[in-house]
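re: ur question from earlier - yeah i can do the single chain one, its not a big deal. heres the input i used so u can compare w yours
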Amino acid sequence: MTRSPVLVDLKFDPQTIANALQKAFPDRGSINLADPVNSGADLADVDYAILWKPERALFSRAPNLKVIFSGGAGVDHIMDLAGLPDIPVVRFVDHSLTTRMSEWIVLQCLTHLRQVDAYRKQALDQHWHELPQPEASEITVGVMGLGVLGLDAVAKLKTMGFDVIGWSRRHKTIDGVTTYDADNLDAFLRETDILVGLLPLTPETTGIYDKALFSKLRQDGALGKPVFINAGRGKSQNQADLTNALSSGVLGGASLDVFEIEPLPAEDPLWTMDNVVITPHAAAASDVRALFRNVETQIARLERGEALEHVVDRATGY
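and the output i got, formated as tokens:
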């Protein structure tokens, strides 16, 4: 039986993709749109596509797709596309991606707890001075978004000794963790010293991290001022409000991996703020080898008559 090749349209490093595809999908092959030889390829018979910010005309070129696999944890780059067919969209859920995200979140919480930037500045000035700092148990980390990534982050932050609480639109129960839902956002914020953003991007979460939200975070906690950490989606933060909150002292600091515009423009004031850690959307970079293995697994499930895993709910957008 002739099997349809897997369509790959990923805006990652082209050589990394090409190398990974040499061993991926051995029984069906692939069409890599990053390869110029495939720029005009006939996609009419393609069943499966792996996409990250694909070309706008893709769905007209590939009208018979059966499943779309996201190239990363987020799916807003697919759900917002004009002409999106009514077929399953599958999120990338993988241990390596989850672990990378949790590592970054724990690193940033510890960076602010242990005043890493302040000590780095002192070292540059050859200034020997111990700064007062609380224990992790004195700090409440509030995690917004309790999906796969959020739950792993919660578990690892608790292991480090932080007091951890969680928020999600719909109520979730986590052993040993106080959780809040959409009706109790203000109560959640009042308890939070470090706010961790891991929300998917939907119409409801676009711009949710704004002036009003930042002003409700705990202002008299052990850190002195609250801290904002965002590794979810850039458009969930109102960047002007965020910048103002940092410059005015409403926020004591931030660690940001995602932004409204990426790459972050050179003239953006966030670059020069002493209390801001910036990383280039690298908190949980997708391992394309793991991505392709995940897609192979899901295609095999489907072709055995089993249900796909991690399918996006079109009603919620995640």
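The chain has two domains: 6-92+286-303, 96-278. not sure if urs matches, ping me
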